[in-house]
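Quick board copy: two proteins, each given as sequence then tokens.
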Amino acid sequence: MSIASLMPKQQINIKLDLQQGWLNKKTITLKQGDHLSRVFVIRVTNTFPLNLTGYQPYLFVKRPDGEVLSKGCEMINASQGEFMVQLSSGMLRTSGTVIAEVVIGKEGEGTLSFPHFTYTVEESLHDEETIEEEDINIAWDLINEARSAVVQVEESYHDFEVRKEKDFADFKERLQVTFDENEEVRNEGEAIRVEAEVLRQQGYEEMQEKVDKVYDSTLTLSYVVVE
């Protein structure tokens, strides 16, 4: 025996007539997400019971989100037009008003649709994504750890920025010192060059003076010899 057969079920009787519609119209409220625990027992008539021997009934539902689902029904008493269908969790997935339609068909003979009926899906407080209190605490611990990690990253980034600015300032200072030292060397070199040029000029003038004296002496000597 399967677990599904042991599950308590809610049975809802529905009577549909081709001419008069939903005969036992009433408010049907079901719970969101229930699976195979809600059963529609449907009887169809056309003033008189319809014999559905050899026919297959289907239930089509349109959920509030616009999704359309279908499911084959199981015969209870074909000669009296009575059958049943267990609603799947998909047919109870979305809260709100659901529009339902019964269609019977037989291969080679077409299909026959019955007037709509409706049922309401009440929002459930539990689902597969429900979080237990312990899970919430774990989640908060993870969130706090993530926040701490973010703070550490931000602090590391700040320290990196501070170090980067300090290193850049030190580099600029060293560069300026190097530039100043090079400028000083350049100035010293220029002073030496100027001094050398002065010395060279002085040497040239002294040499020119000596040449002039020798030349004058030679002229004087030549004059004496000629006389």
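And the next:
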Amino acid sequence: MIFDVFIEYLDKVTILLSIPAYFFIVINWMNNKKLQEDISIFLQYKDEKISLLQTLRRMHCSRSEIQGLLRAAYGGGTYKLSFLAGKEFSKRLKDVQSNDSLKDIFAWLLRTKRKKSCELVIKLEEEEKAIYEKFKANIEKINAI
């Protein structure tokens, strides 16, 4: 008799604990799915915009990875882009890296769309035109291959 009551009690506790567990499983699944998205990186000079050939996964999108892609696209030598040291770049990078699964779930429940940034635009200043031209020439040369 006591054993039956104990088993019934454990059954109810298990059911109550499984509901939040499923909720966190869904959040984790959405988080992992979003981290696998590809992020395109663009260089923008005035109204002209070129895309770096490679994309980064959202989970790998960091300042050092972007610098590595830029260094590979630039070819040899060094360059200095003032935008990469500014607050706007940090803000955009944080926006790309952010992963608000709870907000996505609430947006899904409310049947609204959340715009998630899947591209990172690096703006170049007027004095960086020569750097932009070298990036553009190298990217076009790689595309021609």
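Board note added afterward: The longest strand covers residues 48-57.
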